[in-house]
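debug: dumping io for the single-chain case to check the tokenizer round-trip. Nothing else runs in this session.
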Amino acid sequence: MRFLGLMLAALLAASTAQAAQDLQDRELALAGQLRCVVCQNQTVAESRAPMAEDMRREIRTQLEEGRSDAEVVAFFERRYGAFVRYNPPWKPSTWLLWCGPFVAALGGFLLLRRTLRRGRPENTPLTPTQRERARQWLDGADNEERS
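debug: decoded output
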């Protein structure tokens, strides 16, 4: 009888440890999906900012209350907007986040192309006055090199 009690206690301790490990794994996975609202270039899991610590604590609290991963992410999205997701979903309100960099790069390319086309000199021959000035300038540069 005593052996059975010890086995039950060991089984209970093992299942509790496994449940705690599963909870911690879920917490880390969710913290990796959310952006730190202070750092903005790090996930909540990577950031050491006090706000990120608060967010990790809130994730843990909600998971302990039995909320699903989707519910926890939805909570943070309601609070901070779609930007809080490190990989925001593809929907009309996030199209600018997804397409903005490509549109800016394309616009920059088109502006560069237009600028380069305008800056091309025309293939018109030099006037006699321009030829003389160029010849004088070149002769002056030759004379300075010889000195």
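debug: round-trip ok. The chain has a mean pLDDT of 82.
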